[in-house]
Design brief:
This protein has 322 residues and is of the alpha/beta class. It has a seven-stranded mixed beta sheet with strand order 5-4-6-7-9-8-14, with helices on both faces. Helix 7 links the parallel strand 8 and strand 9.
Length: 322
């Protein structure tokens, strides 16, 4: 078999999965690239808590949903122009990501909208053009499609089309994404790839609570509009000791979270944890050691970090759930 493009269904580690990992690693040993596409019936991962930075002061245990909430609270505290709106956000949202924010900051800054994603996006663009900060929520990433025209034709192109006279830099679009056990077809999408090919807008997905807080604050303060997808399966299952202070994580910069010598594995969001399990299995059963790179920002992606790691090897595995 040619090893330049093997497409494999399934990334889980359950015994009933159709994938033979021995065969997979034999193909990888020949060189080339393997693309893994997740299959819901085989989904499985182990979340390993991330250590806070050594320079972090006070920390508090937070799951990913609480870390997102904390980031938005800090944004509202530090930016008097910031507003948050979307479907049910004044009530806390479907998953509780905006819980208590309307009580703390008032319903003129955290408020509900009609069920109209196109209108939510358009209103957010208008707020940003006027010079304020808009953090808008699409209740599920699946339903971002009605807002596609506003995001692509307006938000991402506003700076260019106006010769930098106007900009939607103050716009951040949040959305829960990815599969979960009871999500079914209309609440399980990972549509990030639609937005990774569009100049003028940044696409960000965190792997855990520490990353979520720092990356979301960077998105909110970024000089370009941003889309921030939150893997809903990690909302409760991912728990870190998160710094309570205000901090940001740079956009457009990938992070190598594990060193290896045989294979480079690249992913983002939930799939990082799947790859950690795969890397552990590869090391224990086949003696293969793997680099793992978390892209974090998909648009623009950090080509230098990936290229530098791959320079001395030909084998790469990319894992995604989109």
């Amino acid at each position: 078999m040619a090893s330049k493009g093997l497409r494999v269904l399934s990334t889980g580690l359950q015994p009933k999965c159709s994938l033979s990992y021995r065969g997979l690693f034999q193909q990888l040993a020949k060189g080339g690239t393997v693309t893994i596409v997740s299959k819901r019936s085989c989904s499985y991962f182990t979340y390993v808590p991330e250590e806070p930075p050594e320079t972090a002061g006070e920390v508090r245990q937070m799951n990913l949903c609480q870390a997102v909430n904390n980031a938005m609270e800090i944004a509202l505290q530090t930016d008097p122009t910031a507003v948050i709106f979307g479907e049910d956000v004044a009530f806390g949202g479907v998953f509780g990501a905006t819980r208590d924010l309307a009580t703390k900051f008032g319903k003129d800054r955290v408020f509900n909208t009609p069920i109209c994603e196109h209108g939510i996006a358009g209103a957010g663009i208008g707020v940003a053009i006027a010079g304020s900060t808009a953090v808008i929520e699409m209740q599920f990433a699946d339903y971002i499609m009605p807002a596609f025209d506003q995001i692509i034709n307006e938000a991402s192109r506003m700076r260019y089309r106006s010769g930098n006279t106007f900009t939607s830099a103050g716009l951040t679009i949040r959305a829960p994404s990815g599969g979960i056990n009871h999500g079914a077809i209309y609440h399980s999408s990972s549509p990030e790839t639609f937005f990774t090919h569009m100049p003028g807008i940044k696409m960000v997905i965190p792997r855990g609570p520490i990353q979520a807080k720092g990356l979301l604050l960077s998105c909110i303060r970024e000089n370009d509009p941003c889309i921030f997808f939150e893997p809903k399966i990690l909302y409760r299952s991912a728990v870190d000791m998160v710094p309570t202070e205000d901090y940001m994580i740079p956009l457009g910069k990938a992070e190598k979270i594990q060193d290896g010598s045989d294979l480079t594995m690249v992913a983002w969001g939930t799939q990082i944890h799947v790859l950690r399990d795969v890397a552990k299995l590869a090391a224990e059963k086949y003696g293969i050691t793997c680099d793992i790179i978390d892209l974090r920002t998909l648009n623009p992606w950090d080509m230098d970090t990936v290229a530098n790691v791959r320079r001395n090897r030909l084998k790469q595995l990319r894992s995604f759930s989109a």
